[in-house]
Amino acid sequence: MKKMWMVPVLAAAICLGATACADTDKSVDQKGANVFPVSTTEDTLGVAMGDVMPFYDDGVMNIYHLRDSKGTNSMFYHPIARLTTSDFIHYTDKGVALDFVEDISHVDASLGTGSCIKGNDGVYHFFYTGHNDSGETGFEFNEVIRHATSTDQVEWEKDEDFNLVGSENDFRDPYVYYDSTDSIYYMLVTTRADGKAVIKRYSAKTLSATAAEWVADANNFFTNTEGDYNMECPSFIQYGNYYYLAYSEQGDNRVTHYRYKTEHDGEWKKFERDSIDASGFYAGRLEKAGDKLYAFAWCARLSGGSSGGFDWGGNLVSHELVQNPETGELSAVIPESYKTYFSHEMTYNSVDGEKVSSYTFEGEKFGAYGVQKLSENVTRISLTIQSNDDKGNFGLSFGINGDYNNRLGSAVIAFDVENNRLTCYNGVSSILRYGAPLASVAFNYEKDKNYNADVVIDGEILTVYLNGEVALTARITDMKGSNFAFYSNGAKCKIQDIKFYE
After folding, report:
1. How many CA atoms lie within 13 A of 314 on its CB side?
2. Largest Cα–Cα separation, the chain
3. Residues in the chain, pLDDT under 70
4. Buried b vs exposed e over 159-195: b needs ≥16 C-beta within 10 Å?
5. pLDDT digits (tens, 9 = 90+) for 459-477
């Protein structure tokens, strides 16, 4: 075990030196592996992914999503495209499924989120949002729920007569499911009522019902009691003996929340940790695949390009969810296929030439051990952490452009034992000034207890899975092009059993 005695450092490193990669002669052909894909595999486009609409069918996860592309003017944008995967590692681009209409008077001038469901007759039904701000559609409001059908998920036919209109400009993100208890189809819609953000529920006997045949419940399905923000992209899943409602906060926290109940018509409840991941995992939707439950969302681009907060559209992020059998609480964990596929162990050396394996930090001051830069392959890092007091923070730092120990880069993943958080900072200027958190999630650290962590890195996106309890996803733009380090800033701790896999 390598022991690091602390030495003071006054500023983060922003250097321009080059460095050797890890043992690239041992790298494997990952055969196009991509765990955080964008909307298209067409290299000349590189279009970002927006709201995700997962649909599992016959062993294939269909990742419908808003593609961040535009038409001939700013009125026309966001076609609904589709990726498919059977392992969450290799994705096939199926192109645009439903396109916007370049007509200023059409309700589909731009498209919003929806959902796909398969009828008993094998016909696929897609309910989605038509959006038009021009005022030329003939409708009082700018958002309308729309309907399309297909027999193969390739060719879709829009029902031009289906226009379900609410009573607000906010009326979108339909999620349709079949309720076997009530023997009816339900549609959840993000909207507002009486000045409050709500999720309304409509019902119909068949998926082929006209817009007029979808009838709204007398009461709201769910009302926001914790803020004024809209609850975007709802999804509803029964898993085991629990019912779950997920939605995303269109507000300051921009996280995917979830609620649960134990009875079909019971009261909604919440856990102390009521979110899936943090602000780097937005517009999350739940979907089952066989006996497993997953959550899908997107990690946004940054407002400053390489810095700043989260903007709109980015890369797909997929989490497997495990259910606590006693309480029903959900935890995001690393998909099992990641561990199976990315299992080729790599050797990484410190900047001093020693193989990276374990570090002990004595606390009090700052210290860091530099490591050679990451390869371009998808990389999984597994490690065990242990905090030996309740002070400071420690973890990984990225963006160190040179062979240096005792430096911080431009971003850190902090196991913050002092504040009981797992946090990403991407505006680090010194050991005293980390800047505002990019993303953060609560986690209680116990003294002298070991915690396992997996870090999955693909391009600019990183997810930390901590102890099978929480996940934190973030965008760090310079991970692959620079050195990184294991560091401690005033924390007495151990980082052990460090292994790298491709």
Report:
1. 34
2. 72
3. 1-25
4. eeebbbebebebbbbbbbeeeeeeeebbbbbbbbbee
5. 999 999 999 999 999 999 9
